[in-house]
Amino acid sequence: MKLWFKKISVALITLMTLGMYIPPTYLDADAKEGNKDIFSSNEDVQDKDFVFSDIGEDNLSDDEDFSSLDSSEDYIQLFTDQAREQTFTKLGPRIADKVEDDFMMEVFPGMEEVISSILEDIDEEEFPFIEINEQKSSVNGEKIFNIYDKQSKEDVARFHVRRDLRPKEGYWFNFHYHLRDDNYEEHHDLGEIYWDKNTPPKWMS
């Protein structure tokens, strides 16, 4: 009798409590949030991969489009910088301090243009074989610098400066260059700068 009563009691209690327990809503919310985080993180990864792939493709195309232009501009800039430095070294501080502004306005733009023109006529593959010869200039001679071709072992161009004494005027500095194309015979003028009636100092002094 007692055993039968216990079985009935257990069955009644089970029926009475069935459906009364409801899991806390925050557990379901947390689960949904977790799923959202998973999906959003996956979407972020996909978006980032897409962005990175686009950036990589853009950079590659830019490099292909502008690599040759940047290379030629770099060489021209390098050569013109060296040309300016070599010219001031040739003139020396005593002369350069007085004529620097005139040189930069009257002569250097033409020198830049000539150097650019020379390099533009040379194939890009040959650029590494072209250099400015930085051997020391003569104290009394005209040489400033030469643009030298290491493959042919010839000067492509020779840049000079000459002191001219003109009656009743004084001394002028004549800047010019010679080209391999005409066997260095022609004087191609770059410009002139007036010094003074007094004799200028020696070069590089």
Task: Explain what this protein looks like in three dimensions.
The structure is a single chain. This protein has about 200 residues and is α+β, with helices and mostly antiparallel strands. The protein has a domain at about 65-195. Helices cover about 55% and strands about 20% of the residues. It is built from 2 helices and 5 strands; from the N terminus they run H-H-E-E-E-E-E. It has helices spanning about 1-15, 25-120; strands at about 130-135, 145-150, 155-165, 170-180, 190-195. The longest helix is centred in the middle third of the chain and has 96 residues, at about 25-120. The chain is extended, with a radius of gyration of 41 Å. Mean pLDDT is about 80; it is low at about 50-70. InterPro entries: YpjP (IPR025616). It comes from Salipaludibacillus keqinensis. This is Cell division protein FtsK.
